[in-house]
Structure formats: structure tokens, C-alpha cells
Amino acid sequence: MRFQRLRHAATLCFVAAFVAVPAAAKTISVKAGTPDANEKLQEALILAEPGDTVELGAGVWKLTDGLSLDVDNVTVRGAGTKDGEGSILDFSGQQGAGEGLLVTSDDVFLTNFAVLNTKGDGIKSKGANRIVYHQLRVEWTAGPKETNGAYGVYPVESSDVLIDSVYVRGASDAGIYVGQSKNIIVRDSIATENVAGIEIENSFDADVHDNIAAKNTGGILVFDLPSLPQQGGHNVRVFENIVSDNSTPNFAPKGNIVASVPTGTGVLVMANRDVEIFGNVFDQNGTANVMIVGYRYDHKDPNYQPLPKGIVVRGNQHGKAGYAPAFEGGAEIAAALGGAIPPVLWDGAGDAVVLDEVGVLSLNLPDAKTPRDQAKPTPVTLKGTPPAALPEIKLPASMEAKVQ
């Protein structure tokens, strides 16, 4: 397995390149701990010009309002993510319910600072192409709570997204989330004690690798949902991750789609197509190491495709799984099978090719409208010839150069 340690100084790259910046590029330094730190930091983000770096001084920033950046080609760089020595943006006293930092511009590099206890999302970017989240910590320090912000890092509606060496804890939806985007890499990060550790939703062409997803409700989710501007999520590779002990009770607010994720889920694929799950280490996931399901909720979107297609599970290491299935009827099914369900659970909708030498349980629900209580569970062995391997995701050389 290629995962050896988190690269807090990224060492893997596709291409090393020099990134040119305007000759007038400057560094705007802002100190922590001053009474007007919130205003000074927001002012720096407003006054920054393309090529500039906004440098966050070490210390704790007591912030009462969210921050925003809408200037292209800006770096926001802190002094570290650790308490006592880094740049800690503490939003415990935030007045509104918005995100801690909102980015709406392209070619932005966020690195080396922490965001704590936001009322809403930790760091959100929207329509921000070629954005890099690097060496960041986003945390709700009281641990799992329904009142925590929904997302830790939250890029949406973007092309070319790199999330590298990020730590997220306590999100009431997803710790690391990428939605309605394309050309995505999530690597060398830790997601723990979130509802969903890592989620790729309604997105195209994503590599999720060399991460640790542990002690969440569900470790890694690959979803496609109706009634969103971008649908048809596809070409997602989940590989060489450690997905273990995802045993945190679900604390998502009621009505949220992830509120239905069973505690003890390793990887959950819903209604996506062309997804490869390989080379991962699974252990101590009480419901299943891998779940493959259709979307089984009412919707009014005539263009939505609710079935999973071309899902390949191969070459993973499977530890203990299926011993505490947290879905309706799961305990009875496990008892009938000798105390545990097999590591791979498929609801029977769509198609899947499982090449691991492990058991598979099919609920034999042939379409996405059949209710779960009509399931007729059957242990099966799914074999077949997988489609051609999905291509490795390539990002612009300028993005990789930023993390060197």
C-alpha cells in the first residue's frame, strides 16, 4: 500500500513547475490577537491583488464574522495548524450562521491554518476553479453534535480541485465534501468523527486516495442526487485508503440525505456509475465495508438516473465487518447468516462487479423503487470482467507546484 504517512509537506507530484506571478505581487501580513483582527483580515482579503499572499500571523484569531475572498490568484498562508503555534481562526463567537471562509475566485491556494467552531461550513468555495486546500485543519472541538456546521471543506461547482493533507473533525454532514465539480483529487487527509468522512457528490472524474476515514458514521460516500444542476456522477476511483471503525452514531439533522447513512458504513456508493474501489484497507465497519445502492427516495426529476452502474470492487483488504448492521432488518439478517453479513452489501439495483475474494450479500431489490422491507437477502458471489481501468486524474502543473 502506498499510504505511509500524511504528507504535511506534500512530496508526491505529477509535474514540478515554476508558477509565475505578477512582478508587483506582494505579501500582506496580518497579526492575530488584536481587537480589530476580524476587520483587518477581511480588509486584507479585499485589498489583495492577483499574485498576492495574505499571510496570517501565528496565534488565535477570535472572529465574530465570516470572511470572504473574491480575488483571483491569491494565496492565504498561515503559520501552522496546531494549537499554541499555528494560525488558529476561532469562530466560537461567530454572530451569523454562515461559513468561516468563503472563496469565489479562481487559482486560490489555502494553506497552513486552522478553522474552528464555525456556525456554518468551515471553508467553502463556489465556482472557484483550480483551488488548492493544503495543510488545513477544520474542527468542531466539542466533537460530534447536530448543531455543528454541515461541511468542513466544501468546494462546489468547480473544475480542478486539490484537497491535500487536510484534517476535519465533527462536521454534521461531510468532513471533506466535493460537489457538482470535475477533475478532483482528495489525498493524504484525515476525516474523523464526521457523519460522512469524505463525500464526492454529483461529480465527474475524481481520485480519492491515501486518506484515513475513521470513526465517522460512514467513511467515504460517492453519491449522485436528483434535482441538482450537475447530475450523472461518474469516473470516481477510491483507492489505497484506510477505512476503519466508522462507528460514530449518525448525528446529521433530520431531513439531510446523510441522516440515512447507517452507522458502521465503510464506503457507500449511491446511484453513481463507473466507480472503482480498490487497494483499500477496511476493518471494524459494523454495517459493511462496501455498500452499493440505488436511490430509493421520492423525487420529481425526470432526468435523474437512480441506479448504480459499472461499480467495481477489487483487491481490497477486508477486516471485520457486518457484525452490527444498522439498517432495518439488518440484525435479523446477520443472525440468519451466523452473526454477521458479508463485507460487501449490494441492494441488487443496477450492476456491480466484485472481484474480491470475499462474500457479497445481495438484498435482491431489482430497481430503485422497491422498499427495503421487501428484500430477499441472498449471499452471492459476483464475478465478471471489469470495464477498462479508469484513468488517473491529472491536475494543472501550476496546482501541483503550489504544494511543493
Automatic annotation (TrEMBL):
SMART domains in the record:
PbH1
Does the keyword Signal belong to this entry? yes
Q: Which residues form the signal peptide?
A: 1-25
The domain of life for this entry's organism is Bacteria
Q: Does the keyword Glycoprotein apply?
A: no
Extract the ranges annotated as region (Disordered). Answer: 367-404
| Residue intervals of the Right handed beta helix domain | 148-294
Which Pfam family, an example, fits this chain? Beta_helix
Q: Which NCBIfam families match?
A: beta_helix_1
* Protein name as catalogued: Right handed beta helix domain-containing protein
